[in-house]
């Protein structure tokens, strides 16, 4: 009941009524999402790419995916380039963050979101989204690191769970992603989510 009241209050704060569909949760699908950024501090970082893929039932729908490059306004540190492999020249033809977000919202709709340490990605999106439409993402969120932690804690004595993605992959016997970019990371997170759901 409280959740419904909060959502109703948030919906009234929506400054752009064309995005009211964000409050209509899709019954059969989820979206796995990942952002690449210029840094790890939400306050200072900018988004350089967004990847997302739909999940329906027990299938990752790679034919229904979303990927955009975003042109940042500030400079990128060399260590960030080494992580996501995107150089300033790669992003020079990228779209503005506002247009990227509008396209992303059309893609995800009201579907619940899945991701690895999803809180960071959502915080980055919300930083730009709230000034744009007046509200943060209202979508339900399922973080695979949290799901994995809860599952592992049932069988552990010492209370330590390694939440690095490499450790999760090894434990679940899943291959590493071939290439580190937002879309591949979103697809991998979707696979991990379905694996965890299956062993649940």
Automatic annotation (TrEMBL):
Gene3D superfamilies: Ribonuclease H-like superfamily/Ribonuclease H (3.30.420.10). SUPFAM superfamilies: Ribonuclease H-like (SSF53098). Keywords: Exonuclease, Hydrolase, Nuclease. Transmembrane segments: none annotated. Residues 29-200 form the Exonuclease domain. GO terms for biological process: DNA metabolic process. This is 3'-5' exonuclease.
């Amino acid at each position: 009941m409280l959740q419904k009241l909060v959502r109703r209050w948030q919906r009234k704060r929506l400054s752009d009524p064309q995005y009211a569909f964000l409050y209509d949760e899709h019954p059969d699908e989820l979206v796995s999402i990942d952002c690449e950024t210029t840094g790890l501090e939400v306050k200072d970082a900018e988004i350089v790419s967004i990847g997302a893929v739909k999940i329906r039932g027990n299938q990752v729908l790679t034919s229904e995916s979303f990927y955009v490059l975003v042109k940042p306004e500030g400079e990128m540190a060399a260590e960030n380039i080494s992580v996501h492999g995107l150089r300033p020249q790669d992003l020079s033809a990228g779209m503005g963050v506002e247009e990227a977000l509008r396209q992303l919202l059309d893609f995800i709709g009201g579907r619940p979101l899945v991701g690895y340490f999803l809180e960071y990605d959502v915080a980055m999106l919300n930083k730009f989204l709230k000034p744009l439409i007046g509200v943060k993402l209202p979508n339900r969120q399922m973080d695979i690191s949290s799901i994995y932690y809860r599952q592992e804690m049932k069988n552990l004595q010492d209370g330590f769970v390694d939440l690095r993605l490499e450790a999760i992959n090894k434990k679940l016997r899943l291959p590493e992603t071939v290439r580190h970019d937002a879309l591949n990371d979103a697809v991998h997170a979707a696979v991990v989510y379905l694996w965890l759901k299956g062993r649940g």
